[in-house]
Automatic annotation (TrEMBL):
InterPro entries: Aromatic_deC, PyrdxlP-dep_de-COase, PyrdxlP-dep_Trfase, PyrdxlP-dep_Trfase_major, PyrdxlP-dep_Trfase_small. It comes from the Bacteria. Keywords: Decarboxylase, Lyase, Pyridoxal phosphate. This is Glutamate/tyrosine decarboxylase-like PLP-dependent enzyme. Gene3D superfamilies: Aspartate Aminotransferase, domain 1, Type I PLP-dependent aspartate aminotransferase-like (Major domain). Its cofactor is pyridoxal 5'-phosphate. Belongs to the group II decarboxylase family.
Amino acid sequence: MTATPFGPLLERAHDHAFEYLRELPDRHVDASATRDELLAALGAPLAAGGEAGEAVIDLLATQAVRGTAACSSPRYFGFVIGGAYPVALAADWLVSTWDQNAGIYVISPLVAVVEEVAAGWLLDLFDLPRESGVGFVTGCQMANFTCLAAARHGMLRRAGWDVEADGLYGAPRVNIVASAEAHITIDVALRYLGFGTRAIQRVEADEQGRMRADRLAGLMASLEGPTIICAQAGNVNTGAVDPLREIGAIAQRHQAWLHVDGAFGLWARASHRHAALADGIELADSWATDAHKWLNVPYDSGVAIVRHAQDHRAAMTSTAAYLIQTQGTERDAVDWVPEFSRRARGVPVYATLRALGRDGVGDLVDRCCARANQVAEILSGESGVRILNDVVLNQVLVRFADDEDTTRRVIAGVQQDGTCWLGGTTWHGRAAMRISVSNWATSEEDVARSADAIMKVFRALQRG
């Protein structure tokens, strides 16, 4: 048998990876090294002759122990970041091994078919129109961009304008409507698409961050011309979901395009227990979500879904004389996403959906929500601790001693302690701790340990 240069390096990487995963459940959750320390270890003039591959792998692995936050830890509660489900990680290793450019069918029939099947499974899981277009993108930023590009195309096409050929200069004005609590990725997508953020007409939100349907109805009555409405399933602070059935009815009445940013909240549709929170979401014209959040696949993995597949494809597709693009039923991913060359990011989605099944995905969502309620219940029993939101999904907002400085000091103290990691935010002008439970591996014990660490930091501050 011919010797392969991959064997020793892959075995070495495998051993390092297993050691990293073995230590993950019990390690200090935050990174421990500073920028200067990492630069001292990793920085050097680029050598003319290079270095041994084994030495490079060893260097990266040893510095990762102190230079990475343990984002896959069951006690990492920052930024709505999921872990890596075992089958998803294993599938992602295969994706790197195959090294397929997943842009067109002719390069990788396997990946094209896997993503076609995974797309159908997602539409079924979310109970969205089965004829919808689906694109696997880097994350919800590009999912929002892709969906809103389709919305731009669709609304201007109805007005008799070809935006792909003629651009926005001289085009009919498109009204852009979004909640005052819209995620920043909506603003960024609108910037990328040439609308600009000053064009956004903001709709007031309620105390939980839900768009007020009555205010939306009033605004829509004053608008004329093509309109895109951006709603939300899962407020990034509270987890609250906009009243989507009411919003959907308003959008239909005014023939507006309704887009829903469901970065994590769309996954509530997979849960019998929580699906009612997203009631009416099926009335929308497009949906954006992340698989690297609640499906717990490795980064990067977002999903763009558009009811009107012809608008989706027209907004994204690209052609060239040298390409061999399908004219049949085969799927070319380049028709549905902004990227041309791309990795086969739909494969871990396929693997995880197949391994978990419909019930497994629903259970994953339910367990995370239960753990969020658990931490809220424990912390709310402590004198001087207040939960600021209704815990409807996996987000918890906490304030300490009803004081800005104390709250921020508790957050910093918990991060330094390392038992768990969580971040801060500002909610209705007040500092708050933000806890997001998004990891498949988070147990009741993990939550209890984390809550105990939080209370210890707070009590120490109270004692002065």
